């Protein structure tokens, strides 16, 4: 048997025209994408400032008026001739890399573009009421000066509340608070029949409350959410700890960094993430909130990582491999968005010289390029190239299986760096689409509690080693094997990613029972697309569209033996 640590041997790949289009794409990015991105970011910033100047009462009034426009639009739909319902957002605007192929077929659009306001910051209830297009940069700009933040703040500025609730969201605090959707207190939803309901975990719409996460907007339109706030301090005291050894040893050091074996809660940090740079090297980062008085004490180092000319964060963290463990203080908001400028490490592929000092100093203030513009300017050939020669996937795996996951990725894809971020997966009153392993609470594994199993997001974002060496690589086959590994190991794949799952395997990975219950109860069947239909790769055939509209497709539940 081959060594599990050795990547597969592949043949050399002959270069074609699209290889050169990708190689020199930086020209388009510098002269077109970056300037337009900057103008868009500035325009959005002005819109956010204008919204913030309005009174809460006025913002709420506008919100109510916009909700009624959504209701009116839904009631205009003729089920006999109009397509299934979805938002009017352009296919390329989504941050995720999945192609929005469902919008290339017949559909009925509802415009939600006005829902981008922070409606209220309630300091007494410690809740932020926001509309679905509010993004992470916008909300941290409003809350951090108050020494408040969402319990889970996804790293990239552009990620929206609606996407993080309907889909998937995580951050370095998720080992304490769970996924982004776990921090939601209430949701305002427009149902298929035009009813507007407020769903909480303990009211008459509690089933809808638990059904919305991971549903991809296929149960109704989320038009506002109330989300948990926590008190914070001005700085993050961050400790960088280098780890060297095999992948299993790196995985164990990662687990030990935030889940002490003696169970001492005092040793649990406020934030944690890991980066695996090679099959034998990684850096673990643990953070605790710190006051400005502490940060500015003599001898403490403050690092404002948000400045445009600063080294990209993942490369800065990598220096711990040579310099050893070190500690520094980072302004909290800058820490939250530490991966934004370089889009984790994808920026290195988009702009190969973007990490050089001369570029950072002269043009770094233009970063990052807007993901939607990158998608809008790539064309069909480049889009297909990325599907075949690039990996952007997240693997949500139980903590005790992280070492196995790292070895699988090394063998099948050889992608580095890898991102590690832990999160609790709660045992809920109902069995939702994602759920902990049955009986986990009796195993007493590291990081687990009686009410939640500790999982980890293994982020796989970059060109595989084979592609970088000019060898053949079949991205579709690699993703298919990754998905089968996830199914076999009670693990999950967020739906933003390109998927090769067929419908049967999709429902082997996710549990459909509660989701289908909500689809039937709240009239989504035949009005909103199913989550598989919406996430499925490839253009929809007319037959698929007609079947989905008629709601005659049967749910593909997993076989009993699966």
TrEMBL record:
GO molecular function: Delta24-sterol reductase activity; FAD binding
InterPro entries in alphabetical order: Diminuto-like (IPR040165), FAD-bd_PCMH (IPR016166), FAD-bd_PCMH-like_sf (IPR036318), FAD-bd_PCMH_sub2 (IPR016169), Oxid_FAD_bind_N (IPR006094)
EC number: 1.3.1.72
Topology of the protein relative to the lipid bilayer: Single-pass membrane protein
Subcellular compartments: Membrane
TM segment ranges: 26-50
Positions of the FAD-binding PCMH-type domain: 53-232
Pfam families membership: FAD_binding_4
Protein name (database record): Delta(24)-sterol reductase
Gene source species: Zea mays (Maize)
GN (gene name): DWF1
């Amino acid at each position: 048997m081959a060594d599990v640590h050795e990547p597969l041997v592949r043949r050399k790949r002959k270069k074609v025209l699209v290889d050169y289009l990708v190689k020199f794409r930086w020209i388009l990015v510098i002269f077109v994408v970056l300037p337009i991105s900057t103008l868009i970011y500035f325009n959005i910033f002005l819109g956010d400032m204008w919204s913030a100047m309005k009174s809460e009462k006025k913002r709420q009034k506008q919100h109510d008026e916009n909700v009624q426009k959504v209701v009116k639009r839904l009631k205009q739909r003729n089920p006999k001739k109009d397509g299934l319902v979805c938002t009017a957002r352009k296919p390329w605007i989504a941050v995720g890399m999945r192609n929005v192929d469902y919008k290339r077929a017949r559909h009925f659009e509802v415009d939600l573009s006005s829902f981008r306001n922070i409606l209220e910051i309630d300091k007494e209830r410690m809740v932020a009421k926001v509309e679905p297009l509010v993004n992470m940069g916008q909300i941290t700009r409003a809350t951090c000066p108050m020494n408040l933040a969402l319990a889970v703040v996804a790293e990239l500025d552009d990620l929206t509340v609606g996407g993080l609730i309907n889909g998937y969201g995580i951050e370095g605090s998720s080992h304490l608070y769970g996924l982004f959707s776990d921090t939601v207190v209430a949701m305002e939803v427009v149902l298929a029949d035009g009813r507007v309901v407020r769903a909480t975990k303990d009211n008459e719409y509690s089933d809808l409350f638990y059904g919305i996460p991971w549903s991809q907007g296929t149960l109704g339109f989320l038009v506002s959410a109330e989300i948990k706030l926590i008190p914070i301090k001005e700085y993050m005291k961050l400790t960088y700890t280098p780890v060297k050894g095999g992948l299993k040893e790196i995985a164990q050091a990662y687990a030990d960094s935030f889940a002490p074996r003696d169970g001492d809660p005092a040793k649990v940090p406020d934030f944690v993430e890991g980066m695996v740079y090679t099959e034998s090297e990684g850096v673990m980062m643990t953070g605790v909130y710190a006051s400005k008085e502490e940060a500015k004490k003599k001898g403490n180092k403050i690092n404002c990582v948000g400045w445009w000319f600063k080294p990209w964060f993942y490369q800065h963290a990598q220096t711990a491999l040579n310099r050893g463990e070190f500690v520094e203080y980072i302004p909290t908001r800058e820490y939250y968005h530490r991966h934004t400028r370089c889009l984790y490490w994808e920026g290195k592929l988009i702009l190969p010289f973007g990490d050089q000092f001369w570029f950072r100093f002269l043009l770094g203030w233009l970063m990052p390029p807007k993901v939607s513009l990158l998608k809008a300017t790539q064309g069909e050939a480049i889009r297909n190239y990325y599907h075949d020669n690039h990996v952007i996937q997240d693997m949500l795996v139980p903590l005790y299986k992280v070492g196995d996951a790292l070895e699988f990725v090394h063998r099948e894809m050889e992608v580095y760096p890898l991102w590690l971020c832990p999160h609790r997966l709660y045992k809920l009153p109902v069995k939702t689409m994602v759920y902990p392993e049955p009986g986990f609470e009796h195993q007493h594994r590291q990081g687990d509690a009686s009410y939640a199993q500790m999982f980890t997001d293994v982020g796989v974002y970059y060109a595989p080693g084979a592609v970088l060496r000019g060898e053949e690589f079949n991205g579709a086959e690699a993703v298919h094997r990754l998905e089968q590994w996830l199914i076999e190991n009670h693990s999950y794949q967020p739906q933003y990613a390109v998927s090769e799952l067929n419908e049967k395997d999709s429902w082997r990975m996710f549990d459909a029972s509660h989701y289908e219950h909500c689809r039937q109860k709240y009239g989504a069947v035949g009005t909103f697309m199913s989550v598989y239909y919406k996430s499925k790769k490839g253009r929809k055939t007319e037959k698929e569209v007609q079947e989905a509209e008629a709601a005659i497709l049967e749910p593909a539940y997993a076989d009993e033996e699966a």
